[in-house]
Amino acid sequence: MTEPLPWPATPPAHGSVVLREFADTDGQLALELGEDPYVPLIGSLPAHPTGREAEEWVRRQQTRHAEGRGFPFVITADETVVGTIGLWLRNLSEGAGIVGYSVSPRHRRRGFATDALKAMTGFARTVPGVERIELYIEPWNRGSLRAAEKAGYRREGLLPAHQEIGGTARDMLLYVKP
Questions:
Q1: Keywords of this protein's UniProt record, alphabetized (predicted)?
Q2: What is the rounded CA–CA span in Å between residue 19 and residue 36?
Q3: What DSSP line would sit under 5-56, residue for residue?
């Protein structure tokens, strides 16, 4: 395993949000996100997690950086935990960082995703090797599409059957911030 890139000395922030490392106390976020019908389909969080499963998910997020996978952050607004966002580096050899994000259902439609994307974009620009930032969004996900566009990302194209979600190959829209 290669040495992970350094964690940011100053937490990324924009507008109403600050991005911070996962803490042991973030299990409630996992419980909230696990109740969403979509979020468990796109990652390692089980649907309707137990308290123990939520704690295990938080621990997995805490190890991702040391494993060299990327930078998982918790999105906070006025110190309230509202979601998660990550910069993933599996395509770093191609100059690309991939951003994924989820906002807890009870905190949606308040601009947190847009502010988190702007904060993450600023941070991603400091990561050696990241020349392009990519988002993969399902065409039906209007909230995520709005957040991406408000954060200055542009649609580059439709990728048919690009990603498996919930056991089905799904079309994804590719949004980029060159």
A1: Acyltransferase, Transferase
A2: 21
A3: PPPPSS--EETTEEEE---TTTHHHHHHHHTSSSGGGSSSPPSS--HHHHHH
As a dihedral over the C-alpha atoms of residue 122, residue 110, residue 82, residue 29, rounded to 10 degrees, the angle is -130
Question: How many C-beta atoms lie closer than 10 Å to residue 132's C-beta?
Answer: 15
Residues 117, 12: Cα–Cα separation, whole Å: 10
Alpha helix stretches (DSSP H) within the chain: 27-34, 51-64, 112-124, 142-150
pLDDT tens digits along 26-67:
999 999 999 988 888 888 898 999 999 999 999 999 999 989
Dist. CA 106–CA 125, nearest whole Å: 30
Gyration radius of the chain's alpha carbons = 15
Q: Indicate the helix (H) or strand (E) that contains 67.
A: none
Q: Which of 3-7, 49-53, 71-75, 137-141 has the lowest mean pLDDT?
A: 3-7
Q: Which domains does the chain have, with CATH numbers?
A: 13-177 (3.40.630.30)
Cα(53)–Cα(6) distance, integer angstroms: 28
